[in-house]
Amino acid sequence: MDFFKRHFLFSLIVVVGLMLIAYIGVKVHLQFVFGVVIPYLAVLIFFEGLIFRLISWARSPVPFRIPTTAGQNRTLPWIKRDLGDKLDNPDTFWGLVGRMALEVLTFRSLFRNTRTELRKGEEKPEDGRLIYWSYKWLWLGAIAFHYAFLMVILRHLRFFTEPAPHFVNLLAETDGFVQFFVPTVYMTGVILVVALTYLLLRRIYTPTLRYISLAADYFPLLLIIAIGLTGIFMRYFYKVDVAGVKQLAVGLATLKPVVPEGIGALFYVHLFLVCVLFAYFPFSKLMHMPGVFMSPSRNMVANNRWELHVNPWNYPVKFHTYMDQENTYRKAMIEVGLPVEKEQ
Amino acid sequence: MATPKPEELIQVNYRPPEKGWMDTKPPFRPGTYCNAAAPKWMEMIDYPYPRQWSVAEEDWKLPENWKEIILQGMEDRLSRFRSLKVFFDICVRCGACADKCHFFLGTGDPKNMPVLRAELMRSVYRRYFKTAGKVLGELAGARDLTEDVLKEWFFYLHQCTICRRCSLFCPYGIDMAEMTLLGRELLASVGLNIDWALASVAQCYDKGSHIGATPQAFKDMIDFLAEENERITGINCPVSINRKGAEILFIVPSGDYFADPGTFNMMGYILLFQYLGLDYTLSTYAAEGGNFGWFVSHEMGKRLNSKMYEEAKRLKVKWILGGECGHMWRVCNQYMPTWNGPADFLEEPVSPITGTKFENAAVHKMVHISEFTADLFKHGKLKVDPSRNAHIKLTFHDSCNTARGMGIFEEPRYIINQVLPEGHFFEMPSNTIREKTFCCGSSSGINANENMEIRMQGGFPRANAVKYVADKHGVNHMGCICALDRATLPTLMQYWVPEMEITGITELVANALVFDDELERTTDLRDRDLVGFEGAGEGEEEE
Q: Are residue A326 and residue A210 in the same domain, yes or no?
């Protein structure tokens, strides 16, 4: 089996296996384990892991101020710096806030993405040309997925709260404004799965991407697709007892867990996969979410020349001094008329 | 080993091989790698494990406990550099960086996709520092650290020129340059260095510049260039060296006084300062702006950089002016004050000609020549005749380090527009300039002769964009503010875009500069006839 198959199939088998585990668990009446114990455990692991990882990152200092500068820096007052320069090469704290906000909320760097094509020379091979196409599909897929996921998560708050906060209801209403099916179809759920499918397919069908992709790349995609699909199936096709679900969720949220009878097995499969996602998060590449805030090439103000950055472990180094040089070449230096510190 | 011809090298295949990347070994062919560093250089700078070894041979004569050294070194760096930890942990392998790297575009080798180049190191990190990697091995993207892996690092970490183009496109700003630099430190810790880089470092350390010129030779070269100026312009321009009490210490990359076309730029600086009557001095000690040490380690970078502030202090100057150099400015901008500052013994730079305070250099106390010159033009302090550059059709190459490690884009363009006739300046395609600029392909210590094939491949995207403006607009010169560019681009151009000349920006300024008492100028600083004086130069020579 080749590299791709090993990594892809491993992820697929793990996701299917996880679903089976939850399904069998419910069939042997482990509702309490899958409905209460594992969710609490997952949340615990999520927060502990997250804090552990953030502390581990924070413990390593940032010895140098190394922002990647992507616009004109601050120099002479009359050199024009437009808003783009101020955000892409921030020289103030607020410029930095703007840069980070753009990065986190709009995926600014990914928006730059291009695709390069080497076009063959028509007459002579050496006339070949590199052409750079603007390529926003990855950006679109990524931003669609992330925002859809965020909306889906926020919408789920209505299960945990009684009554649901106003904004959650509003969200749900907006989300379902295109009415063509009963119950109302939430667009974000559809977008979530479509975007994820695109991200998965590009990984599989772009040769270079397939070459670099690991199980750690397929697994989260497949896992979240499975979460999305089980959710969609539950809502539209194999309906589960929503009142029971709400009872369970409110119980979990208020630390008074109850396990109502008669919620379908599909729900437990869905919930278990979500728990796995939570527990997996801090130990995986999904940490890019908090990580982007700690990336020194993005989160620093480009003000090195007027504000000193201190390296906590800066240590003295051995260097060749001027006197070392003069001592070696004094005679010759005097001969050619170079000034010296000591005549001999 | 002859380098393949352009029509062969351009046949790049971007399709990765069938075999997985953990199972392929680096193709060490002559032309693709740099030679091992000679022990004498290593001894000069107290580098560990100096020995004779050869890249081409199977046995690299590693110290017995090399694996331990590397892993300890990795642990140590993870604890000192948050960048390394975060960059190792958060990559999602989205592939946005893949076709942004000039080495990938030039070679098609998948391990030159920054994401995979990083994975070469990351896989070892996972194996020894991550539970999943320890347990799951390959399935978690982890692999044992073997000699083959180390050789792979050596091969690919010297096919990265620390240009940071990948970090621009990365949604999390993951910077291969940072990992390459730390990876090279690890290689050096077991005695794996490349000769070109280490020879330069040792020469800079011991003598003062990468060419290893002695103080007397340095003076000789500067005097020669000053005489050349006098021959061409009739202006006598004495240059003071190691003079205490000068207002300004001027530091240039040594490429500017060592070889064409950098020397023409040096002549340009000297003429410009003579025109201004600037109170400046050069130094035989801080004779190298380019910091070759930073190509091999943070510590070596600091050791070489120490000379700048030390010399400024000894000579009791007020501030430092820096010449046109790429990575010199990334280092001076992002590292120097942190390494060797604060430079309290210097004053906040003020232009003695215009009175402009360079507030942006308040702590750092060093001004870029392009800032300095742009300010002069803005205040109308320079009388120029752009028609003296009429034989030049120019495009401008943003050097990666001043672009993505500083952000100096407007000043050189402003100057260019002052000294070139209108309609003589053409930009290359927008995806290849400014912050998206492409590296010359030979920076960061790899501009040796033995690896010419890889250099020409790495420089291909840059050259291809130059070819475009040459074909379309008849561009015949490429300007730049980087000495490594001036050293490496002529070779690259000769290969991909013959007839393209490389020029510094101050050279263009000096060509156009009108002195009151000068000889009638019939040639530029390169002794090439000016437009309207074709053939005049030859006649003079016959006399």
A: no
Which domain, by its residues, includes A53?
Answer: 3-313
Return the CATH number at A142. 1.20.950.20
> Do A203 and A333 belong to one domain?
no
Among A residues 138-197, those touching chain B with beta carbons less than 8 Å apart:
138, 142
Is the domain of A194 the same as that of A322? no
Residues A119 and A170 in one domain: yes
pLDDT at B540: 47
* Chain B residues whose beta carbon lies within 8 Å of the beta carbon of residue A320: 205-206, 303, 307
Q: What is the pLDDT of residues B380-401, one digit of tens each?
A: 999 999 999 999 999 999 999 9
A206·B95 Cβ contact <8 A: yes
Residues A92 and A85: their CA atoms lie apart, in Å, by 12
Q: Are residues A328 and A197 in the same domain?
A: no
Q: How many CA atoms lie within 13 A of B490 on its CB side?
A: 13
Q: Which residues of B504-520 are buried (b: 16+ CB within 10 A; e: fewer)?
A: bbbbbbbbbbeeeeeee
Tell me what pLDDT residue B539 has. Answer: 46
Q: Burial, B101: exposed, middle or buried (Cβ in 10 Å; 0-12, 13-18, 19+)?
A: buried
Count of beta carbons in the 10 Å neighbourhood of residue B466? 25
Low-confidence ranges of chain B (pLDDT < 70): 1, 536-543
Contacts of B206 in chain A (CB under 8 A): 320
Residue B217, burial from CB neighbour count under 10 angstroms (0-12, 13-18, 19+):
middle
pLDDT digits (tens, 9 = 90+) for A79-110: 999 999 999 999 999 999 999 999 999 999 99
End-to-end CA distance of chain B: 45
Domain count, chain A: 2
Asked whether residue A251 falls in the same domain as residue A335, the answer is no
Do A258 and A322 share a domain, yes or no? Answer: no
What is the token pair recorded at B472? 């379309």
